[in-house]
Amino acid sequence: MAHSVVIIGSGFGGIGMAVRLRQAGVHDVVVLEKADGLGGTWRDNTYPGAACDVPSHLYSFSFERKTDWSRRFPPQPEILEYLWHCARKYRVLDKIRFGTEVTEARFDEAAALWRISTTAGELDARVLVSACGQLNRPELPPIEGRESFAGPSFHSSRWDHGTGLRGRRVAVVGTGASAIQIVPEIAKEAAELRLFQRSAPYVIDKPDKPYRAWERAALKTVPGLYALSRARVYALFETRALGFIKYPKLMGLMERGFRRHLEEQVADPGLRAELVPGYRMGCKRILLSGDYYPALTRPNVELVTDPIERVTPAGIRAAGRTHEADVIVYATGFRSTEFLSPMKIAGRDGRELNEAWRDGAQAHLGITVSGFPNLFLLYGPYTNLGHNSIIYMLESQIRYVLGCVRALRDAGLDWIDVRAEVQDAFTLDMRERMRTTVWEAGCQSWYMTADGKVVNNWPGYTFAYRNATRRPDPRDFRARRATAR
């Protein structure tokens, strides 16, 4: 018997979707999770210093607001525990099938069902929801000789906790969001740390500090205080969208703050010059840290800006010099523009999603794909942010998907399929609006496909996205009634 809804992934999107479906009276829900625990990116990224760069008061569901965060910016263990708490409290833990990876899903038009193949067997669903996210497949750089290294090497999201770093020579490749959290922690115990930088990131101060006991007590007991704090932080971050999406010159104000931060923390003019990016601020992800630059000034830390030539059994060779290492950490990001890969997804007439997306991922509102009925994406194309909380965006998408599920049930429909012209109009609008954003200011980033299209980010305000996804418009879809079978 077919399930009402099958969800792929048990991170924030998958857990939030399962909770909202249960609250709406849809109980025949299955969550498929390839790992042995829930949490998505917050399960995978357990490296030293792992934490969120969104303030904690914005990093919880609206239906389960957490008032007792330990810090202004939540650390990874607390975020993961919060997700487990939500799954237990809202009784969706028993809906999750752990150790079950989806390999293929094909839409059976005659039966109006998704036929899903997994590593643990087959199952069917009326509705299929992908909650895989954008940051789940590690990107390992195609460096010559990478496999030849004699010591331990691993990606930051696959941290080898069995490899001790105290007193050892460690090489870190990459200077992105993970690296700036990892480097200060490793620098405290490694004998030598060499950081290989291809391009310098913009790093601004992270105003992080622990909440005091009386603050947590007040947030929990004083009516409206937590809601006021959440609204204040949301409004502050939302104003930053102006610089990202409409008036990139406004990023100059933040850039001056970056330069002050750098000058205060790095006295050496030579090192400071190597840490100044050669692109407009905001074109790549802006990073937050209060201890990254001080870590680079430690005597046991060296910044290497020469291009990497190859990895050798002894270490990393750059500009003719071999930097010997005992351990290599690749903080090199994720394959963010591939979305549902490596799963094979086939819609109507057997058309595969990879073929439909050969010119870049497309989905109306980042959620529905023409030719793939009853398939819904969470955190799909054009839904990532550079300025605010992704949880807010996910809740907008979850509400939209729930509206579609209700429409299927209440109208007695077999399936709904977004019209191609609606999807095309949305994609054209996104690409037109993207031209004025800072993300197309001339740099290469993980927001882009290989041919230079920015397909990850939402070129607008989050409240505008919430309004656009407030409810599905029946005119946007083709549908087949159950009586037509």
User: Percentage of helical residues?
Assistant: 25-40%
Distance between the termini: 17 Å
CATH architecture group name of the largest domain: 3-Layer(bba) Sandwich
Strand content: 15-25%
Unreliable stretches covering 5 or more consecutive residues? none
What Rg do the Cα atoms give? 23 Å
CATH class of the largest domain: Alpha Beta
Structural class computed from helices and strand pairing: alpha/beta
Total DSSP E strands: 20
State the CATH topology of the largest domain. FAD/NAD(P)-binding domain
User: Total domains, how many?
Assistant: 2
On the 0 to 100 scale, the average pLDDT is 92
Label the overall shape.
Answer: globular
Major sheet: size, sense and barrel closure? Answer: 8 strands, mixed
| Number of helical elements | 14
CATH H-level superfamily title of the largest domain: FAD/NAD(P)-binding domain
